[in-house]
From TrEMBL:
Residues 85-168 form the M23ase beta-sheet core domain. It comes from Streptomyces armeniacus. This is M23 family peptidase. Keywords: Signal. Gene3D superfamilies: Glucose Permease (Domain IIA). The keyword Cell division does not apply. Pfam families: Peptidase_M23. GO terms for molecular function: metalloendopeptidase activity.
Length: 193
């Protein structure tokens, strides 16, 4: 539908990305999205942010902002999307760093969870948030519902998902699958508690 196309275009400009200087010789950080080897060892065993057994289609499309973020959609048997209101679960255990409605970015209702060692996950455009700042969450705990919220853009429902290390969005690793740029694929949640 046309709304989806508009959503894609809008998200591109929703959140400017800091660009590392080219040719800085670094093999880690925001330019490539690959965390350092030490950070990689400390990365939690992130699961999909959805109910155990559900299959979703993710895309970390070229031009998505911030880079390496994944947009998730769920499809009904007839091929239409039926994302709205579906439950969102924490990818790993941790502590809620932020739960807010963003008025200065396109994120809308947003939850950020800290997992230690500089690792965070972000969940955006939520219909509703089920946790508050300071809450402790377990892997697989419900933290909100999929929506289309944004202060700036008219979106079609989807979950915007980021894995963050030391403040930079990095290439996600979910249930052992490395989401190198740029992929569109289905994955089934094993966030089974
Ligand atoms: Zn997105």
């Amino acid at each position: 539908m046309m709304a989806a196309v508009g959503a894609v275009a809008a998200v591109v400009i929703a959140a400017p990305v800091a660009v590392a200087a080219p040719g800085d010789g670094s093999s880690a950080g925001p330019r490539t999205g690959e965390p350092s080897a030490a950070a990689e060892l400390a990365r939690p065993n992130f699961k999909m942010p959805f109910l155990c057994g559900q299959t979703w289609v993710g895309s970390n499309w070229d031009g998505h902002s911030p880079g390496h973020s994944i947009d998730w959609n769920h499809y009904a048997a007839d091929g239409s999307t039926d994302d709205f209101g579906r439950r969102v679960f924490s990818s790993a255990g941790g502590k809620v760093i932020a739960s807010y409605y963003s008025t200065d970015t396109g994120y809308g209702n947003t939850v950020v969870i800290g997992h230690g060692n500089g690792w965070q996950t972000r969940y955006a455009h939520l219909k509703s948030r089920g946790v508050s700042r300071g809450d402790t969450v377990k892997q697989g705990q419900r933290i909100g519902r999929v929506g289309a919220s944004s202060a700036k853009y008219e979106l079609s429902p989807h979950l915007h998902y980021e894995q963050i290390h030391d403040g930079s969005v990095v290439v996600s690793v979910i249930q052992g699958v490395r989401w190198s740029d740029f992929m569109k694929r289905s994955q089934t949640s094993r966030n089974c508690g």
